[in-house]
Amino acid sequence: MEHPLAALPSVHEILRDPAFRAACGDLADPFRTRLVRRAVDSHRQALLEDPEERHEPGPLFSSILDQCIREAEALQTPSPRRVVNGTGVLIHTNLGRAPLGALVEALNESDLGGYTDLEWDPESQERGNRDLRLQRQLQLLTGAEAALVVNNCAAALMLALNTLASNKQVLVSRSELVEIGGSFRVPAIMEASGCRLREVGTTNKTNLRDFEEHVVPGSSVLLKVHQSNFVQRGFVERVSIDEMVALGRRLGVPVIEDNGSGLIANQYAALLQDEPRVLDSLDRGVDIVCCSADKLFGSIQAGILLGTAEHIEAMRRNPLYRVLRLDKVRLALLDRTLKLYLAGDAGSLPLWRLFHASLDELEARIAQLRLPKSGTRWLSVRSTPLQGRLGGGSNPEAVFESLGLELRHRELSAEALKRRFATRPVPIVGYVQQGCFYLDLRTCFPEDLPELQRALDELGGTGDALE
């Protein structure tokens, strides 16, 4: 009987194939070889694990070649790559949360291509501090005594707890032990920070007495976590920020709030009335407020810490801060965002421009598209009212008026249509509802319209049959 590995092609056969060579682009020869060798080795292992299964040389060669071509092309594709967001979700975690738009121009303005004064003080000619400029901006913006910026909000909470509550008990309501994106849970973050979690109250009702019964002056910290991605209604009770701050002041216990969404400005529509404001928490006397910069703050991924100078300085001296601090690229982008806030121009951030776009503006975007007519593969493509959402763990029940396209195809189901849009060179992400595929134009930028037009034309054309 022929040995099961006899059908396996050699590495050199794949390397010499014209299709593979074309897919490799600028990939250097040593890495082409390594890519192919890994693919051949994986197939060799599969053959050894199932020696009874017969393989013909031709199909096996094609299978390995296709795998190598896909991997080579993936290596040549920029990452992360552009995606057209037609979901109507403004802060879409899977699509990068808040869009940056013109903020990236800050990379050129800051001359990041060369050397920078990241940690150099021209006055003293000595080493400086990379985040003091951001601290001054955040102090002016929020009125906080001090500020610090780290990698994300989970990192901000971990740094705060590790600094202020290591080996101490942290009291938090059971109803606020939330799970955030990617299956990360607040209790796991607390455990990693070195504190001792003390759950108080019940799932639906927590009152001040629950905290008072367990708090120990000098060895406790009070924590409040925003229920950002779910809502409790009915027979529920929560302890307010004012009550927690009063208890903390009375017993000399720090109060930390995980605000989450990072809403700074107070003028952003009635839709956000239920969303906690960072400034309100600071005004009420919370010692440390943690929030995200890439949600309702409208900027890059970062975690912002605001609060008393004593606590912030302690965090800055914590060795963990060095692990969690921002690099020069994100510092430049956040600096640009803060300049817009301080100029009173936060509404020009891409997130808020999309949020405030009127229905007339959305109609104008649709009017720029040549919607398919009869005689194409499209059964119907029509403008329709839709409902947008904030996303990103902000006001999970809140929806607002939007406008978009309802698409029905003669040959493709709604799910198949969704996949065809999503697997384009520039993915277009929509959603399926009640057997139709929808694209919400609120979350599409004007520069996305040509890409939408190409997709409509190609899927409605008279070329090769669609599978």
TrEMBL record:
Modified residues (N6-(pyridoxal phosphate)lysine): K295
Reactions catalysed, as given in the entry: L-seryl-tRNA(Sec) + selenophosphate + H(+) = L-selenocysteinyl-tRNA(Sec) + phosphate
InterPro entries the record matches: PyrdxlP-dep_Trfase (IPR015424), PyrdxlP-dep_Trfase_major (IPR015421), SelA-like (IPR018319), SelA_trans (IPR004534)
Documented EC number(s): 2.9.1.1
Pathways involved: Aminoacyl-tRNA biosynthesis; selenocysteinyl-tRNA(Sec) biosynthesis; selenocysteinyl-tRNA(Sec) from L-seryl-tRNA(Sec) (bacterial route): step 1/1
Record keyword Zinc present: no
One Pfam short name: SelA
Gene Ontology terms, MF aspect: L-seryl-tRNA(Sec) selenium transferase activity
Locations listed in the record: Cytoplasm
Superkingdom per UniProt: Bacteria
Cofactors: pyridoxal 5'-phosphate
UniProt entry keywords in alphabetical sequence: Cytoplasm, Protein biosynthesis, Pyridoxal phosphate, Selenium, Transferase
Family: Belongs to the SelA family.
Role summary: Converts seryl-tRNA(Sec) to selenocysteinyl-tRNA(Sec) required for selenoprotein biosynthesis.
NCBIfam families per the UniProt record, alphabetical: selA
Protein name: L-seryl-tRNA(Sec) selenium transferase
